[in-house]
UniProtKB/TrEMBL annotation:
<dbReference type="Pfam" id="PF00011">
    <property type="entry name" value="HSP20"/>
</dbReference>
<dbReference type="InterPro" id="IPR037913">
    <property type="entry name" value="ACD_IbpA/B"/>
</dbReference>
<feature type="domain" description="SHSP">
    <location>
        <begin position="27"/>
        <end position="137"/>
    </location>
</feature>
<keyword id="KW-0346">Stress response</keyword>
<comment type="similarity">
    <text>Belongs to the small heat shock protein (HSP20) family.</text>
</comment>
<dbReference type="InterPro" id="IPR002068">
    <property type="entry name" value="A-crystallin/Hsp20_dom"/>
</dbReference>
<protein>
    <submittedName>
        <fullName>Hsp20 family protein</fullName>
    </submittedName>
</protein>
<dbReference type="InterPro" id="IPR008978">
    <property type="entry name" value="HSP20-like_chaperone"/>
</dbReference>
Length: 137
């Protein structure tokens, strides 16, 4: 069976970048940790919330790399003298990636009660009508 691509549809011109974006999204490798929510807070804004219990602000980094929001967590390696009888709270490093559409910008990030909130805004689309003149050949 052959793989259908957007380039195989003659009426879909210039969508190669979208196809690469979809392939990159499928390869993000997010394993389910930490859990997260995505909510729409208005017609043009969103909020991503990650459950990062046990992480301090300095243990987290948020970057935008090639239209991809990347949130990383790594707890500092401090010598721990505690003896756990049960350790059910995950303390491993993580990386969460979210592909951003053109026009989506990352706003502020706020840490609150073990939750990391990252706000996103999308520019309001503008309707553009262009008239093309026809020349005699």
């Amino acid at each position: 069976m052959t793989k259908m691509t957007l380039g195989s549809y003659p009426h879909m011109l210039g969508f190669e970048q979208l196809e690469r974006l979809l392939e990159r999204t499928a390869k993000t490798g997010n394993e389910g940790y930490p859990p997260f929510n995505i909510e729409q807070t208005s017609d043009f804004s969103y909020r991503i919330t990650l459950a990062v219990a046990g992480f301090a602000e300095q243990d987290l980094s948020i970057t935008v790399e090639d239209r991809q929001l990347v949130i990383r967590g790594r707890q500092s390696d401090t010598p721990d003298t505690r003896v756990f009888l049960h350790r059910g709270i995950a303390a491993r490093q993580f990386q969460r990636s979210f592909v951003l559409a053109d026009g989506v910008d990352v706003g502020e990030a706020v840490m609150e009660n073990g939750l990391l909130h990252v706000d996103l805004t999308r520019a309001k689309p503008q309707t553009v009508v262009q008239t093309i003149n026809i020349k005699k050949g």
